[in-house]
Every structure is written in structure tokens, then in C-alpha cells.
Design a protein that fits this description.
six-stranded mixed beta sheet, five-stranded parallel beta sheet
């Protein structure tokens, strides 16, 4: 029996800025002759040096830094520049993925001896961090992540400090008359919050929702919405891969 929600896909809204250059989403758009729109549901804003100093955190008292996103890296080095701090050459960097580690080349001379790379999850960094039990770890993050518990860190027994270095706020989507797309795609819990804030009367009905990550999935469930596509999965490690698989099946079975 066919899943009644597994209907043909003609339109998709991705809650992120449109990628620059070649994109797998453009290939999907052409391949299935459908429409994909991009619209950021959240905005990332910097905080001032004064706002940061109110947290009473000394950046240079930490010899290791954790990076889970390019945003955290941009604002960490941006704040250091604002505050005229020179990051010591001996600082160790722990990056949640290879892509984020490579992004470090924009800020430092890339030396593998002080860069440690996880496997796409925060938990995968913990064994690497435990090799340096005497280190003091700094975790640059947003206002949202600072308030959210991190079980992996809390159970590690390591000395760490969460430091808010930027803030994430909901975008104003009032110019969108509605969100009646076949699929809505979200990558963070804040994206779900923005949906509900901008469209308090939103009803999912036949709209399919795709989510990336456990925290985004949990936020969706808390808002009593249905996740039709969850990434990563056993068959799809990226959102574009998952969408391709879903559309191929849905559009084949639902002419």
C-alpha cells in the first residue's frame, strides 16, 4: 500500500541562502523539472566586543578551540581581531568535520599537528579531546547553542567554556504570502521556530517536511509536525541525496 503522504513533488522551499556556484539542488531541479526556492529562515548576527566581555570569558586562557560550524570560526577570529588578541601558534583546533577544518586555512597557517578532525558529529570529537586532559577548551557558539545542554561535553569530564560569539535570530518572512510548498527543508531547530513565529497558524496538511539532524527532528516533533525526510540516514548522508531519493520514488509512483 502506498504511503498517502508520498505524493508527487513539484515545489521545494529550502530554508537557507541559495548556494553559490554549482549546486546539487540545481541538478535536482533540472532532473525532475521542478521548482526549488531558497529563503533563509534565520539570520546570523555578530555581537560587539563589549557584549562579549560581559560574559567575563578570557579567550587566551584556553589553549584549545572547538569548531562546529563556519559561523563559529568566522566570529571567533573576528572577535579576536576586534579585541586585538593574537591567537597563540600553539593553539589546538578541534573541528567537527573535514570541511570545517579546511576552512581554517582562511585564518591560520594550516598545520595538521594542531588540527583534529571529527566524523560529522560532536560526540566524535570527545575521544580526540580526551588525549589532552589538561587542556582548557573554548566552544564558540551562538546564543541558541549556549543555552542548549551538550551531553557529550558534560559527560566528558573535560574543562570547557561555552562562549557566545554571535547570535541567531528569526528572519522576517512577512513578505511570503504563504509556505504552500510540497516540501519544506530545515537544517536547525531555529528554522522551525522561525516557521512558527512567522506563520503561527501554519498547518502541515499535505506539505512534506525534511529535516537535518537530531535536534531539528526533536524540535519538529515538539511542534507536533511530521518529518517525512530525515537526514542523515542509512541511505542518505546529505539533504540533496535524500531529496533525490524521495522525489525519484514519489514522482515515479504518483503520476
Amino acid at each position: 500500500m502506498l504511503d498517502p503522504r508520498h505524493k508527487k513533488v513539484k515545489t521545494i522551499l529550502i530554508s537557507q541562502p541559495k548556494p553559490e556556484g554549482r549546486s546539487p539542488y540545481a541538478l535536482i531541479e533540472r532532473k525532475y523539472k521542478l521548482k526549488i526556492d531558497f529563503r533563509p529562515f534565520i539570520n546570523v548576527e555578530e555581537i560587539s566586543a563589549i557584549e562579549f566581555k560581559q560574559q567575563r570569558i578570557s579567550i587566551l586562557n584556553h589553549d584549545s578551540v572547538l569548531f562546529t560550524s563556519k559561523n563559529s570560526m568566522d566570529h571567533y577570529f573576528g572577535l579576536c581581531e576586534k579585541m586585538r588578541l593574537r591567537v597563540p601558534d600553539v593553539t589546538k583546533y578541534f573541528c567537527v568535520s573535514e570541511a570545517i577544518a579546511h576552512y581554517l586555512q582562511n585564518f591560520i597557517t594550516y598545520r595538521k599537528r594542531k588540527i583534529f578532525i571529527g566524523e560529522q558529529s560532536f560526540a566524535s570529537l570527545i575521544p580526540l579531546m580526551k588525549k589532552f586532559p589538561e587542556s582548557k577548551f573554548l566552544y564558540p557558539c551562538s546564543n541558541v547553542l549556549k543555552e542548549r545542554p551538550n551531553p557529550s561535553l558534560e559527560k566528558s569530564g573535560l574543562e570547557y567554556t561555552k562562549a557566545q560569539m554571535y547570535k541567531v535570530v528569526c528572519s522576517d518572512l512577512s513578505d511570503l504570502s504563504d509556505v504552500k510548498y510540497d516540501i519544506l527543508v530545515f537544517f536547525s531547530p531555529t528554522g522551525i521556530t522561525s516557521l512558527k513565529q512567522n506563520f503561527p497558524d501554519f498547518e502541515q496538511n499535505e506539505t512534506r517536511i525534511a529535516v537535518f539532524g537530531k535536534t531539528t527532528l526533536n524540535s519538529l516533533k515538539e511542534n507536533k509536525l511530521i518529518a517525512d525526510i530525515v537526514v542523515p540516514s542509512k541511505t542518505a548522508t546529505s539533504m540533496s541525496m535524500a531529496l533525490d531519493q524521495y522525489i525519484k520514488e514519489a514522482n515515479k509512483r504518483r503520476k
